Structure formats: C-alpha cells, structure tokens
C-alpha cells in the first residue's frame, strides 16, 4: 500500500514539474498539444449536447467531477491505483465514445441515403419544379437524417437567409466529402446556371459507385478487423480464466508492484496493436 502511494506521488510530482516547465516555456510543444486536445474535446461536447458558450464548460466540469467521484469509490473498493486510473480513463472517455458512435451512425445514414435523395430531387427538377420546392417536398416525404437537414435549409430560407448561405451552414454540420460536393454543385448552379438535374444524376451515380467500392473493401478487410478485436478480447478472457484456475499465481499481477507494471505494459501493447491494425485497414476511397 505504501509503495503504491509513493509511486503515485512520484508520478504526480513529475507531472506537475513537467506542466510547470511547459508553462514557463512559451514555445512548448506540450502546451500546443494540450490546447488542441482541449479545443477538440470542447467541440465534441458541443456536438454531443448541442450547447454553446459557458454551458459547455459546465458539462465538462460535471463530467470530470462524476469521473473523479467514481474513481474514488472504485479505489476504496479495489485498492489498486493502476486499475483505478484505467477505469477512470474509460469513465471519462465513455460519453465522447458514445457521441462519436452516434455521430458516425448518423453520417453513415446520410451518406447511404444521398444517392437516392439526389435521384429524387433530379426527377423533381426535370418535372419543372424549383430546387427549393424539390428539397421541401423530399423533406416532407421522408423522416431520415438527410431529410431533416434539407428541412433545416428550408427553415433558414423562410427567415430570410439566402440559399447559398443556408446550404453552406448545413454543409458545416455534415462532415462528408460527398455532401461537400453537393454543396459545391448547388453553389455553381446558382452562380453560372446549367442543367442541374443532369449534374445531380451524375453525382448520384458517382456516389453510388463509390459506396459499392467501399462495401467491397469492408468485406475484404472484415477478417483483419476481427483479428484486431480478438487480439484485445482473447488475452483478457484467458486472464480471467487463469484467475479462476490459479488465483494465487495470477493474483500477483494485482498485489505486487512488478505485477502491476507487467499488467499495465500488456494492456498498453494490446491497445497499441489494436490501433495499428485499425490504421492499416482504414482504406479511404
């Protein structure tokens, strides 16, 4: 117990010294990285909650306070500082992971719906209706995320915002290359004219072919992704099984200092290996 407290105090003291040195050094790379992490995390909280201004920092403070309280409770139960820090990290990052997961699902839904929506809008333009009416008609007939974004464009136009500004505002909310192409197509059509229906049909076919290629790539890389998850889960399952089979020997990983260091190194290497596999298989089309 005393060794754990001394080790934790030494790590905390070294961290404080490093932060103090970084604050004194105006060109510190650490401060730049820390500031960039802060900006990205605040941006994720804004997307997750929809809040702005100082209320975002209130959410951040509540999240940090809740994580610290849970970490203290877990520490008094487990009495293991390394395991407590690991659990605290997962508790702190859980809301961000949930937000990213929901955001990714929404963007995937918009991406797969985009070719169909462009085909419907192009058909409406061919029938002789205006672009605003075509977008409004599609947003009323569908309850999908893309339809809600088009409905947002119509609402902005009703309060006096011009079409180009409205569609650019929606483009900032949807971080997809395909949707940025659509925004550019609308802007060019409004500026120089042309047959917008044919352009939208061509864009729809291009996006559909791109989605088909991406689907083939996902099917070919599915085995590698599964290997990454197996590399993470299998050692953990084997370790739990060994804890039940040989509790005294495996208990040394949690009760001795060297065991905790070995456990921490194993978890870190497994995490790095999983990330490397994901990076290798992240093929962009």
From TrEMBL:
Classification via PANTHER family: INTEGRAL MEMBRANE PROTEIN-RELATED, PILUS ASSEMBLY PROTEIN
Keywords assigned: Cell membrane, Membrane, Transmembrane, Transmembrane helix
Principal subcellular localization: membrane
Transmembrane region(s): 6-24, 56-75, 81-98, 226-245, 251-272
Lineage: Bacteria, Pseudomonadati, Pseudomonadota, Betaproteobacteria, Burkholderiales
Domain Type II secretion system protein GspF, first and last residues per copy: 118-241
InterPro entries with a match to the protein in the record: T2SS_GspF_dom, T2SS_GspF_sf
Native organism: Collimonas fungivorans (strain Ter331)
Domain of life: Bacteria
Annotated Pfam families: T2SSF
One GO location term (cellular component): plasma membrane
Bilayer topology term: Multi-pass membrane protein
Gene name linked to the record: tadB
Identification of the protein by name: Type II secretion system protein
Cellular localization per UniProt: Cell membrane
């Amino acid at each position: 117990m005393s060794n754990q407290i001394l080790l934790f105090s030494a790590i905390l003291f070294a961290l404080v010294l490093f932060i103090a040195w970084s604050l004194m050094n105006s060109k510190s790379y650490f401060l730049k990285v820390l500031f960039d992490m802060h900006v990205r995390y605040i941006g994720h909280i804004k997307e997750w909650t929809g809040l702005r201004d100082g209320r975002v920092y209130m959410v951040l403070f509540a999240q940090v306070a809740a994580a610290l309280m849970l970490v203290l409770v877990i520490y008094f139960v487990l009495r293991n500082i390394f395991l407590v820090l690991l659990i605290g990290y997962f508790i702190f990052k859980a809301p961000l992971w949930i937000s990213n997961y929901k955001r990714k699902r929404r963007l995937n839904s918009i991406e797969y719906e985009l070719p169909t929506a462009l085909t419907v809008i192009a058909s409406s333009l061919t029938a002789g209706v205006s672009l605003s009416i075509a977008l409004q008609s599609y947003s009323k007939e569908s309850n999908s995320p893309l339809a809600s974004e088009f409905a947002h464009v119509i609402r902005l136009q009703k309060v006096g915002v011009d079409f180009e500004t409205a569609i650019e505002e929606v483009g900032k909310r949807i971080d997809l290359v395909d949707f940025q192409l659509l925004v550019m197509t609308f802007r060019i059509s409004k500026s120089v004219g042309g047959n917008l229906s044919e352009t939208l049909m061509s864009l729809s076919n291009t996006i559909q072919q791109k989605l088909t290629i991406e689907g083939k790539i996902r099917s070919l890389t599915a085995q590698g992704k599964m290997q990454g998850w197996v590399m993470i889960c299998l050692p953990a399952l084997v370790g739990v099984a060994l804890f039940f089979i040989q509790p005294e020997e495996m208990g040394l990983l949690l009760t001795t200092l060297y065991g905790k260091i070995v456990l921490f190194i194993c978890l870190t290497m497994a995490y790095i290996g999983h990330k490397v596999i994901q990076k290798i298989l992240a093929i962009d089309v």
